[in-house]
């Protein structure tokens, strides 16, 4: 067997590790970039993180003892507890906030890097062989963390643009309804009765429509938040409330996604 063939076979497992990480990250990116699959992606991502965090303690204590992995794992738990207990309203500037929220993930990623590195240098042959598994977990975890947050940020920008567009369409419909009332002394039973083309109620990207609810002397136009993160959120322009009832879509714009457990302990 030639030297080139030996070199290829020697590095083939590493190629497999990175190929697997790339495939998992690509699947996660596709799921987290779509409104319809975002909530499922969050659940799978959260379960995967929980499993790998628990496994990092097992590896640091039993499989690859005396490595820095266990120290980083404990640091990750402490950082996670701090994030869960943080008061959202007292966060420092945005850059510091993002750094604090990223600490739990960075510590656990560092834990897996330490476990993989220590197992490679172990004198125990079984531990050395297990290094490929720990390296795979480390690379997959790192790539998924970066991929998920990239996809989440991208989807959040789409959501903000969606809310701005939906708000503009809603106010245009409201103007037409007011014009109809001036001429007919009442609001129409349907938008079509006011001469409004149904296509004008169509919202971008989601394919959903703004819904019209007429009352005796008032009406409401509503549309849903496409990225409610586990809860149904509706925006409503209600003439009985003299405008936006609840939250104005302009005030629902989010610059950057927050850690999903931020302030969790304070809310309990």
Give a topology summary.
Elements lengths: L2 H30 L2 H29 L5 H17 L8 H27 L4 H60 L26 E4 L4 E6 L9 E5 L4 E3 L18 H4 L1
Antiparallel strand pairs: 1-2, 2-3, 3-4
Helix pairs in contact: 1-5, 2-3, 2-4, 2-5, 3-4, 4-5
Question: Mind explaining what this structure looks like?
Answer:
The model has no long low-confidence stretch (mean pLDDT 87). β1 (211-214) and β2 form a beta hairpin. It is built from 6 helices and 4 strands, in the order αααααββββα. It is elongated and about 90 Å long. Helices cover 62% and strands 7% of the residues. It is α+β, with helices and mostly antiparallel strands and 268 residues long. It has helices spanning 3-32, 35-63, 69-85, 94-120, 125-184, 264-267; strands at residues 211-214, 219-224, 234-238, 243-245.
- The shape is elongated
> Unreliable stretches, pLDDT < 50, 5 or more residues?
none
Number of contiguous helices: 6
> Total strand count, please?
4
Order of helices and strands: HHHHHEEEEH
Oligomer: single chain
Task: Give the N-terminus to C-terminus distance in angstroms.
Answer: 64 Å
Strand order of the largest sheet: 1-2-3-4
Query: What's the main sheet like?
Result: 4 strands, antiparallel
Strand content: 5-15%
**Percentage of residues in helical conformation:** 55-70%
SSE-based structural type: alpha+beta
- What does the radius of gyration come to? 26 Å
Mean of all residue-level pLDDT scores: 87
